[in-house]
Amino acid sequence: MAAASAPAVEDPVRPEARIDFNDPTARSDLWQRLRNGYGIEPIDNARVRKWERYYAERPDYVARMTDRGGRYLFHVVEELEKRKMPLDLALLPFIESAFNPQAVSVARAAGMWQFMPSTGRVFDLTQNAFRDDRRDILASTRAALDYLGKLHDMFNGDWHLALAAYNWGEGNVQRALRRKRDHKADTVYESLRRMPGETRDYVPKLQAMKNIVADPAAFGLTLPPLENHPYFLSVPIERDIDVELAAKLAQIDLDEFQQLNPQMNRPVILAAGTPQVLLPYDGANAFVRNLPQAQGPLASWTVWVAPKAMKPAQVAELVGMSEAELRDVNHIPPSMVVQAGSSLVVPRPEERLHDVPEDLAENGRLLLTPEGRALRRVSFRAGRRGDSVVAVARRYRVRPETVAHWNNVSVNARFRPGQHIVVMVATKPARAPARKSAAKAARVSAHKAAARSPRAPVRKAAAGTTRKPARRATAKAPHNGAPKAAAAARTKSSPLAARR
After folding, report:
1. How many domains, in total, are found in the chain?
2. Residue 478 scores a pLDDT above 60
């Protein structure tokens, strides 16, 4: 195989700019640049004080959060300035995810900007078998700022309401504005009634973080030094490449590579869907030097499409790998069947020269159904105390991994009170007509025979008298609670009761 050519390295925000780390502005303080760009109206209330205390009492947590966020903060600041948006918003991922691009909430929000699946699709964040752009640093930041800008315009330039809508949903905020409000409050945001506690704390948490960044010493905290230059650079890729090999060529550990490229769902990067990777400055230079020297194929994996519904063991035998490895690579829970049309990552044959085509790289899906009888989808809400994946699995007698797969959460996740939970339950087979017992059949036969026999003559009534037609006898319900017991039995056996 011909050696790959050396790719160019560029700043993903300013591809036209020459990268010069000796430029004096590159050595200035990024935190100060951020402070100078604050533009959202401050608030000052008891909730702000509460969250200031919360962060001040957890210096280790703040240190981990700011160290991690240092990788991405320059990029977010650059994007905000390019759009002429307030730089306060660069601190929002601290509130959303502690600046963790691999974070996934129990409500299935993902990435450092915490996009729900449906909202992500609205803002063109691809979610398929191979990648989830809600976790992509560049794509999710672009989508988040698009969404925040839209909300800012929707609420007539009120950033507090735009932030509330980002957390709670624009429709909920619009309805809250139409309801009776607390007109003694200092801001429209604070006047809204019936906001969830998380939304009522949302802007105060951001304000608390702004105050800490403005003067960390006042809270007994220290921020890590951040210089005003890109932490990562963009390197284009032209061929499919294994994730581990890409990290090796960049001479960085796998964890660092995944922190910068967290959108990958599989151990291979498909160039047709992901035409670039992000690498630290030194890693980008190493990757550019080492890629042309790489020997052999860059990808040891490819994509195979299931022609029909198959068990994982059948697929594994067909593609030449163990069932355990197939399940691990493709995240297939136990007791699941791979449906026709599913796109699975499998070992790439040595004779295969072509990479995965764009249509498959962009649209591949993994479709799974549990083994056994046909299933139907049932959705219900978690109770007042919430629920856990393990508890739901125990209740429905399935594995926790299966419930986690149905709801796209981790096995150890908890569902919040009122959150929708999805389970798949077996469809009951049609009940066959009950066979009549021999005794009942005999009684019915005797009754029919009696009906066919001639009746005794009826004596005429005496003159001057009229006979009332005999009333048909009706059995009175006994006063022993039997009807209630029967009704309870019927309720207990009904499918609706079973679902409750």
Report:
1. 4
2. no
With vertex at residue 37, the alpha carbon angle to CA 139 and CA 221, rounded to the nearest 5 degrees, is 90
Residue where one domain finishes, among candidates 245, 277, 293: 293
- Same-domain status, 64 and 115: yes
SS3 content of the chain, % helix, strand, coil (to 5): 45, 10, 45
CA dihedral 369, 372, 373, 378 (to 10 degrees): -40
Q: What is the pLDDT of residues 409-452, one digit of tens each?
A: 888 888 988 888 999 887 765 555 555 455 555 565 666 555 55
Instruction: Please report whether residue 493 resides in a domain.
Output: no
The CA–CA distances, whole Å, from 45 to 107, 201, 219 equal 29, 11, 17
Which neighbouring-strand residues pair with 377?
Answer: 424
CATH number at residue 412: 3.10.350
DSSP 252: -
Q: What is the pTM of this model?
A: 0.76
Q: Please indicate, yes or no, whether residues 32 and 173 belong to a single structural domain of this protein.
A: yes
Q: What distance, in Å, lies between the first and last C-alpha atoms of the chain?
A: 61
- Quick one: CA dihedral 298, 301, 303, 307, positive or negative? positive
> Exposure pattern of 312-349 as b/e (b: 16+ CB <10 Å)?
beebbeeeeeeeeebbebbebbeebbbeeebbbbbbbe
Strand partners, 115: 110
The whole-chain average pLDDT of the chain stands at 86
* DSSP E strands, 306-437: 336-338, 343-347, 368-370, 375-381, 387-388, 414-415, 420-426
Burial annotation 150-179 (CB, 10 A radius, 16+ → b, else e):
ebbeebeebbbbbbbbbbbebebbeebeee
- Over residues 76-92, the mean pLDDT reads 98
77 and 161: one domain?
Answer: yes
Residue labelled with tokens 């739901």: 392
- Assign 460 a pLDDT band (cuts: 50, 70, 90): very low
207 & 311 share domain: no
Residue 460 pairs in a beta bridge with: none
Instruction: Return the pLDDT at 404.
Output: 85
Domain assignment present for residue 148? The answer is yes
Q: What is the separation of C-alpha 248 from the centre of its chain, rounded to a whole number of angstroms?
A: 30
Residues 264, 189 share a domain: no
Which domain, by its residues, includes 407? Answer: 375-426
In a domain, 129, yes or no: yes
Check: CB of residue 271 under 8 Å from CB of residue 301.
Answer: no
Q: Which two tokens stand for residue 283?
A: 């890693």
Note the pLDDT of residue 431: 56
Q: How far is CA 309 from the centre of its chain?
A: 26
pLDDT in tens, 191-208: 999 899 999 999 999 999
Closest CA to 91 of 148, 139, 45: 148
